[in-house]
Model the fold of this input.
Amino acid sequence: MLKGIDQRLSAEILHVLMLMGHGDDLVICDVNHPAASIAAETTHGRLIDMAGCDIPTAARAILTLMPLDSFVPAPVIRMQVVGDPEGEVPVFARMQAVLDAAEGRNVPMRALERFDFYAAAKRGFAIIRTADSGPYGCFILKKGVVDLPAL
Done:
């Protein structure tokens, strides 16, 4: 364990977050997402499990270290409800509250159709699967720039 780092963040998650650069995408998903097969096609190439966390808890921990991209219109993508593109499920509002609190601003989120979401996830840097039972607990977070002091 290290000081100041959420205990839910494993060494593998910290490593992936450190490897990611500005504009890279991180997928956070529920247990129903085909995460293992999609993760094989990501930059990282393998699935990372974050057992014991629901989506908002996982996102809250990750966003203590990873800023969202402020140079794109919507730095977060979610999966659309199948058959109801305007449909809402509770995790959408819960995730929106976590995003807004982490960034201190309203974070725009856009929706993608299920198979378009899968394709976008395959282009991501890595996939973190939570213990969340869903449904539709599938989000892609675009990493922003970390403002660091000069060396």
In short: Strands lie at 25-29, 48-50, 76-79, 109-112, 126-130, 138-142.
